[in-house]
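Thread title: Can someone regenerate the structure for this chain?

I was given the following input by a collaborator and told the matching structure tokens would be attached. They weren't. Posting the sequence so someone can regenerate them.
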Amino acid sequence: MVYIGEKDYERLVEHCLECLPMEACGLLGGIQYKKKKQIKRIYFLTNMDNSAEHFSMAPKEQFTAIKDMRANGWELLGNFHSHPASPPMLSKEDIRLAYDISISYLVLSLADPENPVLNAFQIDREKNVLKEAWKKYVLH
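Best answer:
Regenerated them for you:
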């Protein structure tokens, strides 16, 4: 289960809308306890492909994000990208490029910008895709 703060979720949607018509992408840092992943920070990274159908995260920005996670005692919990005009599903390319089975892969569909849809997935060693539950939470 992936837990994302309500304000972080809103920032994620806002950032992805700002990146239209291109895909947005980034990393998710936080803490994990058993199968519960609590996102503490979303790292919005540059899509080096500058494409509406592909993304590549800027390597230097990835390094900076991982360094910040470590400084805060967090770990890499996952990554995200947006689909400007298609459903919130992983593409064959997304699955092929997924090398880390320990993280979550989030996809935000903006096919209907007024009603964005977020899905989370796990990918196993055999490249099977498993839908993962996620939930917004409110910080007190």
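The chain has a mean pLDDT of 94.
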